Amino acid sequence: MKKITYTVSTAAKPIGEHTMYEPMPDRNWEQFDPFLLLHHHGPHKFEPYNQGLPFGPHPHRGFETLTLIYKGEIEHADSQGFKSVIGEGGIQWMTAGRGIVHSENITAPLRENGGEMEIIQLWMNLPAAKKMTPAHYVGKQKDEIPVVQSSDGKIATQVVSGNHSGKQGAVTSITDLTILNVSGKEGGVETFQLHEGDTVVLYLLSGTLQVGEKKLTPNSMAMLSKEESELSIESLSDTRFLIASGTPYNEEIVAQGPFVMNSTTEIMEAMRDYQMGKMGVM
Length: 282
Fold this sequence. Notes:
- The chain is mainly β.
- Helix content is about 5%, strand content about 50%.
- It has helices at about 110-115, 265-275; strands spanning about 5-10, 15, 20-25, 35-45, 55-60, 65-70, 75-80, 85, 90-95, 100-105, 115-125, 135-140, 145-150, 155-160, 165, 165-170, 180-185, 190-195, 200-205, 210, 215, 220-225, 230-235, 240-245, 255, 260.
């Protein structure tokens, strides 16, 4: 059975008009390979005539991003022509690959009228062999994502990617990531079958969760042991949490702002390509 080996507790910090929790990266960021960043924005209630999220057009290369929407509506647009508005319970999965320029914000009605917003942004690295894969975007609404109910009926698991209890995820990960978005009622128990040897992180948005002999509290993230394949949890109150599992690449990582590559030379090439418009324009 997998156990918690490391935890990160976070405090809210201001970003734009809202607050954000940032459990990843931290000082031990290498151990989260292949995951790079986890930002939990909100929950926040915007006032009318707000500016929304501070994520205007900006580039990425060398990794993937996943946005999970818990409250509100998020609009996506990018230099490849992909556009969508995804509502509560949906996800936005973007493969930056060789390069893309994109923007994310709450919708115009939310900016004009105000309203609630809560999202998670997760960055997932790509191995050297796939860093220059063509850019791609997939948006899925809540009803397009498979859900598995636990045998006690108290744990609901959205299968974003990978497999859980025989159900395939809504998105096919090009690096075989398993991403599970889970909500639990008090007293609910569930077991997840993951891959032995994978990096597995669990982030708790709300509630109290029992994992082995340890309890997790809100806005904390746990690193789980690579040994064994089963992860068992008990929801000690109503909970919401995210499980991300992937094979570590054990490659050199060089990051500069929105670019994540394997060498300084590749970072310089990414900056040059962006300035020359090779990632597209918005």
